Amino acid sequence: MTLTQKGRWITLVALMCLAAVYVRALAFTPVERLQGLAQKIFYLHVPAAIWTETAMILVGLASIFYLFLKDARLDRFAEASAEVGTVFATIVLTTGPIWGKPIWGTWWTWDARLTATLLLFFLYVGYLLVRGAVRDPGLRARYAAVLGICGMCLVPFIHLSVFMFRTLHPQPIILKPSAPSLPGSMLATWLLSLAAFTLLYVGFVTQRYALSLMRDAHGGGSPSHV
Amino acid sequence: MSDVPQNAGYMVAAYVVTAVILVAYAVSLYRRSNQS
Predict the structure, then answer these.
(1) How many CB pairs under 8 A join A and B?
(2) What global pTM score does this model have?
(3) How many CB atoms sit inside 10 A of residue B15's CB?
(4) Separation between Cα atoms, residue B28 and residue A186, nearest integer Å
(5) Domain residue ranges in chain A
(6) Strand partners, A32
(7) C-beta neighbour count of A75 within 10 angstroms
(8) I need a labelling partner for A26 at 20 to 30 A (CA). Which of A98, A121, A138, A220 fits?
(9) What secondary structure letter does DSSP report for A30?
């Protein structure tokens, strides 16, 4: 089985898991009394946000190691992780305002968490634009690595921004030092969704990595060729 | 139940948008790898 096929299978399983999340969230998870059905956006928004941030941390780590080791595999992984992170960031930045409108009364507010997340999205887009704009493979990998490390440095700020500033965005109810403040059935649905998004990340990155591998094999230019 | 806010449309919109983004990206990866 090729890497592309493995990625496709993982993605297929992940999409089936996501379908199960939809069924469980809509039919078998209780409705939150204060927020109503809009609260169920939580089951998609938060796992997507976690993987948006994790993908950028992995881009940053791969970039640091790339700058030391000059291993083309690290550059390929960073590229794949950045593209998938951009997709998840798009989900976060669309589901967030859709959730915010009925709860906060506004689609968007320029508070620290939202603004920093938008900045992370622009960093992701900038990272992909740099990769598309620079023709020299070695330079492309180095420039992209610097942007990837900048993006990684932004992630802790995003996570801690709700503690550092007065924001409209709520504080974490799961990723916090104390136990999650969620009923068991809601937590189970959320964990299933996190598993689905984890599989989606792995499946997408595997396929995207295989694409880069094929591009390099056809002379697209991996940094190791320089 | 009457106290619960009636905002199902927002939930449906978010779920549809998420599905569209993910499936569109999966299809894009499939097409790009077939073209390579």
Answers:
(1) 88
(2) 0.93
(3) 20
(4) 32
(5) 3-22+43-217
(6) A36
(7) 29
(8) A121
(9) P
